[in-house]
Amino acid sequence: MKITVVGTGYVGLVSGACFAEVGIQVVCVDVDQKKIDGLKNGIMPIYEPGLEEIVKRNYAQGRLAFSTNLGEAIQGSEVAFIAVGTPPGEDGSADLKYVLAVADEIGQHLSDYMVVATKSTVPVGTGEKVRNTLQQALEKRGADLPFAVASNPEFLKEGAAVEDFMKPDRIVIGVDEARAEEIMKRLYKPFQLNGDRIIFMDIPSAEMTKYAANAMLATKISFMNDIANLCERVGANAKMVRRGIGTDPRIGNKFIYPGVGYGGSCFPKDVKAIIRTARQFGYELKVLQAVEEVNEFQKQVMVEKVKQHYGKDLSGKTFAVWGLAFKPNTDDMREAPATVIIEQLLALGAQVRAYDPVAMKEAQHLYLGDTVTYAKDAYDACVDADALLLVTEWHEFRIPSWEVLGKLLKDKVVFDGRNIYDREYLKGLGFEHYGIGV
Ligand code: UDX
């Protein structure tokens, strides 16, 4: 079986490599020649645990190829996945220009029946637009070829993307004809050895499933952040409350960790996009509007605590910031709360010494420039710093040497944005601890 994956970003590259890993012939296509050349030489455009190994192995064994030539790649492919970016436009809606450009190009080169499946997160109704665009491209060249459109949203989490792809909870596929369903079933068979994990449905429902899933998860986080903020005010402990409610299987213990707000490439963008879609249909998604509002508020909470401790004017103060990426195990800085927190600290006159195990290059290059000092390691960030702010809960920050930190920091104060430290323990060591909802 041969397939093409268009777009070598997160979703495209992980999917392509994982399909190759189970024996499928995969061509990954991108317009970016540098990226394609890099991949051929084993240079990964993103950091994702386990990815480099499977990309290199499958490339070496000839199951995975990289190309900039879409027309050539799709020849003989039974499926073409569209996994290109859908950046938010100015009004918050997903910009489909890249998705539709791919559909058009496929139409220009199609020579046999093929399933064209969108993997990018796209608004409800995109399947139809892909179909129309492709059909028009075929008509333009006077070709009358059958093809199918499908929606196959991706649920992988950054930092665990390969594992999520190889062992999915579920595979959602929207199709509207039996032939396409059979092909998709065959393609995904290797990933569901432990039972039937594919849920077939109509195309709009598959498109909607992706938004509903991300919106639900974002809701859980904002809900818990809201409750945590109240816990602080009434003298309750959000850690206890989380454990108390999480044991109810109807609620579940995942995604109810209060923190500095959600970030990343999906939740902020998808919540905005679905609110926008609803508006286009004359409906207001009130819960999700509040989810967004709480998340914006939550990014300010850490700095509010700093102000509470040091006062509004932070000039002359230096803060060590541990963790820049929007979550651990990734170098992704998109919508990372750390950016907002650092910008606020700087605006109040403070200086920042930042450290992140992998995201510093990305942060410097695209977000923070030289407005902060990038430290060599976690301890180096604390040299001459007044206090420590933990923003992203990387493993290596979990059990630091408090003895060393006590000597490095001017004040023994920790602002713990992820509640990973034990307040009582730190108190015993003479540290003051600020958490979220505790
Ligand atoms: C998410 C979805 O999990 C995935 O299924 C979807 O396909 C893409 O979006 P991802 O963006 O990689 O994946 O990150 P995720 O691990 O879900 O975390 C999102 C954000 O929520 C992070 O900023 C994280 O720190 C935050 N979060 C998560 C919390 O603040 N509290 C929690 O309890 C869980």
From TrEMBL:
<feature type="binding site">
    <location>
        <position position="269"/>
    </location>
    <ligand>
        <name>NAD(+)</name>
    </ligand>
</feature>
<dbReference type="GO" id="GO:0003979">
    <property type="term" value="F:UDP-glucose 6-dehydrogenase activity"/>
</dbReference>
<keyword id="KW-0560">Oxidoreductase</keyword>
<feature type="binding site">
    <location>
        <position position="30"/>
    </location>
    <ligand>
        <name>NAD(+)</name>
    </ligand>
</feature>
<feature type="binding site">
    <location>
        <position position="158"/>
    </location>
    <ligand>
        <name>NAD(+)</name>
    </ligand>
</feature>
<dbReference type="InterPro" id="IPR036220">
    <property type="entry name" value="UDP-Glc/GDP-Man_DH_C_sf"/>
</dbReference>
<dbReference type="GO" id="GO:0006065">
    <property type="term" value="P:UDP-glucuronate biosynthetic process"/>
</dbReference>
<keyword id="KW-0520">NAD</keyword>
<dbReference type="GO" id="GO:0000271">
    <property type="term" value="P:polysaccharide biosynthetic process"/>
</dbReference>
<feature type="active site" description="Nucleophile">
    <location>
        <position position="266"/>
    </location>
</feature>
<feature type="binding site">
    <location>
        <begin position="255"/>
        <end position="259"/>
    </location>
    <ligand>
        <name>substrate</name>
    </ligand>
</feature>
<feature type="binding site">
    <location>
        <begin position="155"/>
        <end position="158"/>
    </location>
    <ligand>
        <name>substrate</name>
    </ligand>
</feature>
<protein>
    <recommendedName>
        <fullName>UDP-glucose 6-dehydrogenase</fullName>
        <ecNumber>1.1.1.22</ecNumber>
    </recommendedName>
</protein>
<dbReference type="InterPro" id="IPR001732">
    <property type="entry name" value="UDP-Glc/GDP-Man_DH_N"/>
</dbReference>
<dbReference type="InterPro" id="IPR017476">
    <property type="entry name" value="UDP-Glc/GDP-Man"/>
</dbReference>
<feature type="domain" description="UDP-glucose/GDP-mannose dehydrogenase C-terminal">
    <location>
        <begin position="320"/>
        <end position="423"/>
    </location>
</feature>
<comment type="similarity">
    <text>Belongs to the UDP-glucose/GDP-mannose dehydrogenase family.</text>
</comment>
<dbReference type="GO" id="GO:0051287">
    <property type="term" value="F:NAD binding"/>
</dbReference>
<feature type="binding site">
    <location>
        <position position="86"/>
    </location>
    <ligand>
        <name>NAD(+)</name>
    </ligand>
</feature>
<dbReference type="Pfam" id="PF03721">
    <property type="entry name" value="UDPG_MGDP_dh_N"/>
</dbReference>
<dbReference type="Pfam" id="PF03720">
    <property type="entry name" value="UDPG_MGDP_dh_C"/>
</dbReference>
<feature type="binding site">
    <location>
        <position position="263"/>
    </location>
    <ligand>
        <name>substrate</name>
    </ligand>
</feature>
<comment type="pathway">
    <text>Nucleotide-sugar biosynthesis; UDP-alpha-D-glucuronate biosynthesis; UDP-alpha-D-glucuronate from UDP-alpha-D-glucose: step 1/1.</text>
</comment>
<feature type="binding site">
    <location>
        <position position="334"/>
    </location>
    <ligand>
        <name>NAD(+)</name>
    </ligand>
</feature>
<dbReference type="Pfam" id="PF00984">
    <property type="entry name" value="UDPG_MGDP_dh"/>
</dbReference>
<dbReference type="InterPro" id="IPR036291">
    <property type="entry name" value="NAD(P)-bd_dom_sf"/>
</dbReference>
<dbReference type="InterPro" id="IPR014026">
    <property type="entry name" value="UDP-Glc/GDP-Man_DH_dimer"/>
</dbReference>
<comment type="function">
    <text>Catalyzes the conversion of UDP-glucose into UDP-glucuronate, one of the precursors of teichuronic acid.</text>
</comment>
<dbReference type="InterPro" id="IPR008927">
    <property type="entry name" value="6-PGluconate_DH-like_C_sf"/>
</dbReference>
<feature type="binding site">
    <location>
        <position position="35"/>
    </location>
    <ligand>
        <name>NAD(+)</name>
    </ligand>
</feature>
<feature type="binding site">
    <location>
        <position position="327"/>
    </location>
    <ligand>
        <name>substrate</name>
    </ligand>
</feature>
<dbReference type="InterPro" id="IPR014027">
    <property type="entry name" value="UDP-Glc/GDP-Man_DH_C"/>
</dbReference>
<feature type="binding site">
    <location>
        <position position="121"/>
    </location>
    <ligand>
        <name>NAD(+)</name>
    </ligand>
</feature>
<feature type="binding site">
    <location>
        <position position="210"/>
    </location>
    <ligand>
        <name>substrate</name>
    </ligand>
</feature>
<dbReference type="InterPro" id="IPR028357">
    <property type="entry name" value="UDPglc_DH_bac"/>
</dbReference>
